[in-house]
Amino acid sequence: MRVVRCLWLLCLLVACGVPAVDPADGAHGRITFVDSQDLSRNPYIKQRVDEWNERNTRHDQVTYVSMPRSTDEYRAQLMARAQDLAGARGDVRSQCYDVMALDSVWTAGFAASGYLVPLSRAEFRVDDFMPAAVESSTTRDDPAIRDELWAVPWRADVGMLYYRADLLAAEGRRPPSTWAELEELAATLGPKHGLAGYVAQLNHYEGLTVNALEAVWGHGGDADRLDAPEAEAGVGMLARGIRRGWIPEAALGYDETASLAEFAEGRALFLRNWPFARSRLDASPLRDRYGVAALPGAGALGGWNLAISRCSAHRGTAREFIRFLTGDESQRFLLENAGYPPTLRGLYEEPDLNARLPHLAVLRAAVANARNRPVSAHYDEVTKVMQRALHSALRNPESLKAELRQLPDRVRRARAGR
């Protein structure tokens, strides 16, 4: 009789549509954590993974996988693995990237494709994080999943301006507060000292989208109106810099590492890069001769969010590991050692940290003024459309007006998945 009653109850639950609980949700076991290449001077992220493994049993160990430096290649590999393991069960789940570090602009796309597990806002205390970083962990394009949290903000990033403090001081000049002032200094002092005026990431990849948007924002423009005069002024400044030589033409092939090398080896007056560059420069011959400031106008808010793959068989361990990496201790460690800006708001206000890290005030101001790139489930297509048009405009300035005139419609179609 008891067996019959249990079977009846099971049938009733199924008939009433009560969803089955995936045993993986609370399961513990070994997991794999995948991240982009750590660009800090020492493998500080691996050190945090090693710390987790030392504190936990063999049953909850984490395997750390570092992926290619190129963000485009990294995304392609993540997407391919997620597609291959969609709906996977059994032993094949051991191939899953249980916890993925996602560029903030990828989160919406991975969520819309069904590759991520929704997370609890209360469990991860998202009110403690910067609102803009939390926004990048959601999606606005799909009403069905708009209110869900799909990842936890981990490392913030924001565009910063590095400059030769010794040379500006010798000329009695301060770091530029407008793009017009930056152009004037780069075009005059750079050649005077035998240096490139300004180097940045203008290769045909995500870095170009970021650098162009920062120039557009700095001239009063907006990502939603790339055919406006302000957008033309921003992109036009970059094109003019290349044409007149204060931005080297080689910058059309620069990524973060190449542009940093130009500055660190004493060949450029100004460098636009991310906060990780500070730890590299502190170990270079320029250690006592450079300074860092917020970019004129808004910098792009980049960074990395931590998400759990739907294919994960050990989501309990995955959630605990994310809490460990995004917690106060880990974010403090990465800030102090690698220079990665935290996503926890409280760390920017700590007197002790500000006393020991003089650059934290500059970083806080830059992060507070930063702007998100367009949040879209189809961001990959959006940025590809932008990169094609922008790289063409910088290589062939005569095409700039035409490229920007057509770009808004192309971006709208890309955001709609067409």
From TrEMBL:
<keyword id="KW-0762">Sugar transport</keyword>
<dbReference type="InterPro" id="IPR050490">
    <property type="entry name" value="Bact_solute-bd_prot1"/>
</dbReference>
<feature type="signal peptide">
    <location>
        <begin position="1"/>
        <end position="20"/>
    </location>
</feature>
<keyword id="KW-0732">Signal</keyword>
<dbReference type="Pfam" id="PF01547">
    <property type="entry name" value="SBP_bac_1"/>
</dbReference>
<dbReference type="InterPro" id="IPR006059">
    <property type="entry name" value="SBP"/>
</dbReference>
<keyword id="KW-0813">Transport</keyword>
<protein>
    <submittedName>
        <fullName>Multiple sugar transport system substrate-binding protein</fullName>
    </submittedName>
</protein>
<comment type="similarity">
    <text>Belongs to the bacterial solute-binding protein 1 family.</text>
</comment>
